[in-house]
Amino acid sequence: IVTFLLFQGSFNSEEADAIVKECIENVVGGDDYSQSQVNKWTASIVEGCLTQLVKQGKHYKYIVTCAVMQKTGGGLHTANSCYWDTAMDGSCTVRWENRSMYCVVSVFAVSV
């Protein structure tokens, strides 16, 4: 297994970024912000991202977080920090927006 992981390469954040953007577009698309839809949207986004990441068949445990916020002119700041094997593990954060909301999704991939 160790040999396989060495040839597998490190986490590809560009692939994860594309998966996340596609999931957000599929779930929220051009919809306007709706408080009654936020729980459904966030659950669908994280589940969609996890499903697509796992389908890649790579040996990672994934953690996906999602925040949706209405555009009201207020500030939004996010940060994360990880202590792990930087040669194999990785993360990406996608900030997406449309005319009425922001969506911030973070993916953390920990090699197994």
UniProtKB/TrEMBL annotation:
Subcellular localization, as worded in the UniProt entry: Chromosome, Centromere, Kinetochore; Cytoplasm, Cytoskeleton; Nucleus
GO molecular function, one term: dynein intermediate chain binding
GO annotations of cellular component type: cytoplasm; cytoplasmic dynein complex; kinetochore; microtubule; nucleus
One GO biological process term: microtubule-based movement
Record carries keyword Transport: yes
Keywords, sorted A to Z: Cell cycle, Cell division, Centromere, Chromosome, Cytoplasm, Cytoskeleton, Dynein, Kinetochore, Microtubule, Mitosis, Motor protein, Nitration, Nucleus, Transport
UniProt record similarity statement: Belongs to the dynein light chain Tctex-type family.
Function as written in the Swiss-Prot or TrEMBL entry: Acts as one of several non-catalytic accessory components of the cytoplasmic dynein 1 complex that are thought to be involved in linking dynein to cargos and to adapter proteins that regulate dynein function. Cytoplasmic dynein 1 acts as a motor for the intracellular retrograde motility of vesicles and organelles along microtubules. Probably binds BUB3 as part of transport cargo. Required for the efficient progression through mitosis.
Designated name of the protein: Dynein light chain Tctex-type 3
Species of the source: Mola mola
